[in-house]
Design goal:
The structure is a single chain. The chain is α/β, with parallel strands linked by helices and 269 residues long. The chain has two domains: 71 residues, Chemotaxis Receptor Methyltransferase Cher, domain 1 (Orthogonal Bundle); 185 residues, 3-Layer(aba) Sandwich (Rossmann fold). It is 41% helix and 20% strand. It has ten helices and ten strands. The longest helix has 15 residues. It starts with 7 loop residues before the first helix and ends with a strand. The mean pLDDT is 89.
Amino acid sequence: MSHANLSAESYAALHDFLEQQAGIRLGVGKEYLVTSRLSRVIREHSLRSFEDLVGQLRSLSGKPLQLAVVDAMTTNETFWFRDMAHYRLLTDSIVPDLRAPWLRIWSAACSTGQEPYSLAMTLRDGCAGANGSFEIVGTDISKTALAQAREGRYYGMSALRGLTDDQRRRYFHVEGDRLDVQPQYRQGVSFREFNLLRPFDGLGKFQIIFCRNVLIYFSAERKRDILERMARVLVPGGYLLLGSTESMNGHQDLFEMCSGHGGLAYRRR
């Protein structure tokens, strides 16, 4: 199915659907991305065209198809110990500052699980202040990504991204090109399907939230709404960590910036 099969009308309809359902803003010139990711969905659901896809998305019986489209369009780019400065900041500054006997951490938009497991590895091995007592809740909108996260099994060269040889040996059971997260680093880590546009009330309270490289996909209004709701589920003095290229400009009323080890975190006011 070629790029030419995607009409301007269908692209606009898919753009609006994705923003309404998942907060994803495609922007201009992303036709190739839509074509490459949704052509498989069209084939798997025995549809004829993008026009057919749009029509089915609007029907009352289109819920499974809606989930498949959101799943296909979700960016699952991730790797182990991404932005190491954040992990050093966590162990050397954030955890000692919180002085909590038990930590509850939210890994928002956790994709295939590398971030929650990296956090568990960091806390178990390098963070005496955590005392081994923590709960890490990984959430994502993608069922496919979460299935791999729950399995804790990774394959091929992409599975190795961000790992040193020592980390690979220490944290995983290695069999050929397959890496299985060791059982002790899966303890305290759970995963659930969650859409950041939905209410956060059922998630409970957290001392730390990792929400990295996610808010760049949302409009300014949705970003503000998400940050306000994240502030409400953070305990007073709790910490939010964003991606290294993301900014908190305009939201200083909610958080104060803290820096160290080459990384930034934001403490709830």
